[in-house]
Amino acid sequence: MVSFFKVALQTLKVFIIFTGCTILFYYGIMWVSEEYQNYHRYDEPEGSALKVSNAVKEDSSSVIDRLMLFYLNGE
Asked: What transmembrane ranges does the database entry give (predicted)?
């Protein structure tokens, strides 16, 4: 009878620790989610940022030129 109470007490301890850790993890994830929800990653860069791509309008290329480029690149 005493061992039943010990097992029940140990089970209750594990359940309480598991529940506490789950709640802590949940609220941690919610905090991180709120923190990054207001982060605007598509804003214009500040400081001395350089534009790395440039839209270049190519001359009209023929189908043969496009086909040769396709075969040269192996795509």
From this structure: 12-32
pLDDT tens for each residue of 20-73: 999 999 999 999 998 888 777 777 777 887 777 666 666 667 888 888 888 888
Q: Which two tokens stand for residue 11?
A: 């089970």
Domain boundaries, the chain: 1-39
Q: How many CB atoms lie within 10 A of CB 30?
A: 10
Q: How far apart are CA 2 and CA 64, in angstroms?
A: 89
Phi-psi region of 16 (alpha: psi -120 to 50; beta: other; left: phi over 0): alpha
Cα(18)–Cα(12) distance, integer angstroms? 10
Closest Cα partner for 69 from 6, 61, 55, 36? 61
